[in-house]
Structures are given as structure tokens and as C-alpha cells.
Predict the structure.
Amino acid sequence: MKRFLIVLLVLMLGSSFIFGAGQQEVSLVDEDANVTIDFWHAMSGTRIELIQSIVDDFMAQNPNITVNVQYTGSYNDTLNKAVSAHKAGNAPHVFHSYEIGTLGMINSGMISPVDQLADRYDIEIPWDDFFVPVQSYYKYQGRHYSMPFNSSTPLIFYNKTLFEKAGLDPENPPKTYEGIREAAIALKASGIDTPVTWNLHSWYFEQMCCLQDAPFVNNDNGRGKELPTAVLFNGAAGNKALDWWIGMYDDGLFMDVGPGWSNHRAAFGAGEVAMVMSSSSDVNLLTKSLAEKGWEMGTGFIPRPEGATGGVAIGGGSLWMTNNHPAEEELAALKLVEFISSDEPQMAWHKGTGYFPVRKTAMDKLEKEGWFIENPNYLTAFEQLLVSPETLNTAGSLLGVFPETRAIIQSEIQECYAGKDVSKALDDAAAQVNDLITEWNELIDL
Amino acid sequence: MKQAGFSSKYLPYLLLVPTFAVLIIFLFYPAFETFRLTFYKVHPYSGAEKFAGLYNLKKIFTNPDYLSSFWTSAIFAIAVIGFGLLTSLLLALLLNQNIKGAKIYRSLLIWPYALSPAIAGALFNFLFNPANGIIGYFTGIRTWMTNGSTALFVVIIAAVWKNLGYNIIFYLTALRNIPKDALEAAELDGAGPVRRFFSITFAFLSPMTFFLLVMNTTYAYFSAFGLIDVLTEGGPAESTNVLIYQLYKDFFVNSRIGYAAAESFILFMIVVLITVMQFQTTEKKVYYQ
């Protein structure tokens, strides 16, 4: 295909010489034209102002570009709004979507790959400067589809003060399934009724499979030539992870706080639990809420079974560019996403949230500033990512029906809390998802 | 009596145009589209369509989660309507007495209706959430919202509470309109307060009760979404997954437009059916003044 394109280009160039018509292939874009572009994002709370200030900096540097920034609800809401807007012909130039929407977006027919636009408008994007796990998540079959923006991994957060009280080493958090379990038993003995929790979220389960170097779906974890046709999470790795999780619940060591992102944070902040798993983007928030009580917080890698050799895949979101806009606007949008991934914005974003910077140079600058010496918890997620081997599993699994798969897995986990057998629950979930995949693969070809 | 007429034959139609324009654009056209899409497979992003006959209906009716949400919806609706009407009638009767500060109580009781479902959901979340809910703290039971049966109970209570104000206003108005002489005559005839309530007050309230029955049915089937989304997201393990929530998930989360269309068609048919049944059976017992 590529060769064919080159031949075609050469022929066209040749013909333009012959006919002397002089019509240029690369349309000339007026870089200084006044343009207004829309940017929809999915970051709530104090993050709204943070993004606004990043965009304000961008507009100060590019006075001819006006960016309308809008918080459009959750990732899922933002995605739906962008899809509807695209159907109606007024899609935002740039929108923010979650990592699990990647395969859907690639097949949606509504986006332009970032690297394609960068080539068209001759903008240099230093892809090599992006951390490998970050670029490999959003790269599909050699093409950089979206611009990495906010990347995170799950972490263990623990209350050092309560650890000390229970006679545990506050500088050395447990790293294995057995370690977490033993720490939980010690904490329980020290008077914390249910010492461990995390919110009901399939993301943790996915990462637990990944840590055992097991693929989540077939066809090269969804990254092969063909679309994935079946899931693999009901194998040995999935069973081992969920057995451990449910076992802690059954033994009264784990508190079921339901779905959503507020309950486990609240339980941790109130000292109801001493250990939670959450996104590394919560570092800032959780450090503050523990400091209010005069407690110190520590972070650690998410646990794995003894001897497991896998690593984590990144989560979070990236910025997508929609197609069918005038060239001037596309160029402005491209400049915007490039700016957001650059050092200064990424450093401000990292400090304000805990999402790690997506580029090496930003990381180096933070290190030189001494930021991590003062704030070691901000480094944990990053170290966890760096020790992860580069495989198809740690690149992250791609699946068109990912949002629904998560809902199904979460529902089955709740059935396990209520007593259902773990391996049966995983098989049931897999059977349901496989049906959905077959259907989706057909729909996407319509 | 002479009826006021229009000077032109076309004027009435012209005056109806704005209303119909709004109805057609925002109601009839989307409803028709939904009905049509019930029989199509739809691309999740581009919206490309392919005729699929009864495929969507077959699919949803073989999905055990969808079938169980029929039952969840029915239990939810019966509980919300029954419990809601009973509580609001009781409160309206209490409010209808000559007591000091009745106006203040009335305003306070109508208040919940002014809240959006999301706010009401957040309030109940403060009370019942497993991490730091107030009720959990005082009862020592944390599992209100993580246990299937109690979660449904919490959602029902929240839905009843949320709609209490609406029901009370209507009952209160109806109570005010009961002719005093009928009650006095009964009292003179020696009827006790219980007899007076059932033979006179309740009879006069029957048209309002019927109206509220219809309104609460639509409320229970269509308006519970916000509460459930904030409180349980349909969980734990689908136990609060009512039809409207399943519909939301299929359209907005799973992007399966064909299923969602079929589901909203079914939901519409259910509510039409229930309303017709109510008109057929209950209305005969209703006494209009």
C-alpha cells in the first residue's frame, strides 16, 4: 500500500511537470490566519482550571489561535458527545478520550491520525522523546493515532502512620499477593476492621493479568492484523488474581465500597482502611487528605503473585483529532495537542495531579529541579512503569467493546462477593464478551 | 351559549403550527426514528444502518440481564407507587389539619420535589455509602448499597422520597376540595372518623389517586435513571438495573443503538399497556364530582 502511494505520488508529480499546471500537492496553509478551534476534555474538579491555564499559555504563544475549552463530562460522555457532534458535522477539533476507546476510535471513521496530520502540515513531533509504554499504547500497526496526554498506572497507597501502629515497616510496602494479605492481617489485629479496599473497577483486574504477562484478548492482545475475536482473561492469570481479591473479601480483610472513585478515597482519608489501590493520578489528592489528619502516606507497586514476570500497562487518556476541518483549523489543533504534550504543560499537569509526564525531557527537568526528592510518591508510578518489560501485554490490550467488557467483569466480581465461584464468574463474563465481540466486528464493517 | 368563532377558517390551524412544529421535531420524529431503528443494525460511530428484521428484539429477549431487569423494574415500580402514594396520602391528611405552622411543614415536605435526581442521589449517598455513610456509621451496617436486596430498598426509598412533594401537593388540593357539608352530614349520622375517611374522603380522592397512579407509573419507569446512576450504577450485580438504566447503558456506554431502540420501544409499550389497563380497570371505580 505504501509503495503504491509513493508510486502514485511520483506519477502525479511527474504529470504536473509535464502539464505544467503547477497545482501543488501540499496545499499552502496560512499559518497566521485567525482561527478558532474547539477542545473538549473529560477532567473534572480543579483539573478544569489546570487545563484552562495550559491552554491560556498556548493562546499567549499563538495569538492568532483561539481555543474554546470545554469540560464535557466523563470520558464516556465526552466520547458520546464527540460522536454525535461528528454526525451532525460540528465535531470539536480536539477531544479527550480514555485509553480503552482506542480501537473504537481507530475504526470510527471520524478521526485523523496525529502523525498523518503532522506529515501533512510538516510539524515535527519528537515521537522518540515519548516514553516507550506511552507511545506504544496509542500506536497501532505503526501509526501514532492520538496524542498521549494524561497517563497513569494503578498504585498501592498506604497509611504509614497506621502501618507503624500495626508493627509493619512503613518504608517497605508489601509487593506480593501474600505480602498484602499478611499486612492486612496485621492491620486487622491492630484494630482496623477491614484494612484494605479499592473501588470496584475492572482496570485493576486487567493490570493484574498484565503483571502475570498474560494477554487480555487474542490476536496479539488486540494489536494484530485482525481485530480481536475472543477474550483470554478467564485463563490461569485471571483466576489467580481474582481468587486472591475475593479471598481477601471473604476473610473480612477487604471492604467492598462499590463502583465510582470517591468511596475508597473517602475511606482511606478517614483512616477506615490503611491500604488502597487507586490511580497514580490520585497521589496529589490522597497525600493532601492524609496530611489533614497528620498522617503520612506511602506508595508502592501494585502487587503480583510471587515470581510473576509481567509489568503494567498505562491507563488514562489521550487527545484525538477529528477529520473534515479546514486546513488552517487542523493545523491550529495539531499545534495545540503538540503543545499540551510538551515539557512545561506536562510538568504543571504532573505536579497538579500525579499523572506522569509523557516525555523524557519533561521527566529530566523535574529530576533536575529536585521535585522527586521532595515528593518521592510522585516517582513510584513512573518507576513501576520503567521496570515493566516491553511486550504486547504491557502495550495494553485493545478491544472495541472494552467499556461494556468492564461493566460485565465488574458485575461478575460483585456476584463473587455474593458467593459465586470465581472461575465460573470469569467463564460467564468471557462468554458474554465473546458474543459482543462477534457482533461488534460485524457492526464496525457496516 | 354562543361560541366565539375565528374570523378565518385557516387561523386556528395557523395558531397550532408552533405547537405542532415543536412536537414533530422533538417528539414524533425521534419517536418514529427510534421505532424504525428497532429493526436495524447500526454502526456505533458513523450511524450507518443495515436492515436486520427482528434481530435486535431477539437478541435482547435472549439476554438474561435484560429479562431480569423486567422483574427489577416491576418490583421497583410497584414499591415506588404503592409506598409513595400511601405515605403521601398520610402526610397530606396530617397537613390538612388545623395545626400551628402548617405552612412551614407544607413547604418543607414539598422541598424534595424541587431537587434534581442527581442531588437527591448524592444526599442518599451521604447516608448509605459503604465508606463513610451516616446510616452505616450509626447502624454498624456498611453493606446497604453493596448488598443486592438492600441496594434495591435504598433506591426505592430514595425514589419515593424524591417524588413525595409532588404527590402531597395534589392530595392536599384534593382534600381541600372535599365539600365540608358531606363530612358534617356523615358526622351527624354518627359515622366515626374511620368510616368518614373511607366512605367520603377516599371516594372524593379517587380521581386524584387515579391521576397520581398514572403519573407515578411513568415516574417509576422513566425517571429513576438519575437516582440509580448516582447511587448504584445498576449494581451490585445488576440488582438495581431497571429497564431505563439498561437502555441508557446500551445507548450511551455500549453504543449499541439497535438494542437501545428496541429497548425503548418495549419500554414505551409497557407503559402504554399499564396506563390503558389502569384506565380500563381503575377508572370505573373512580367517582368524578
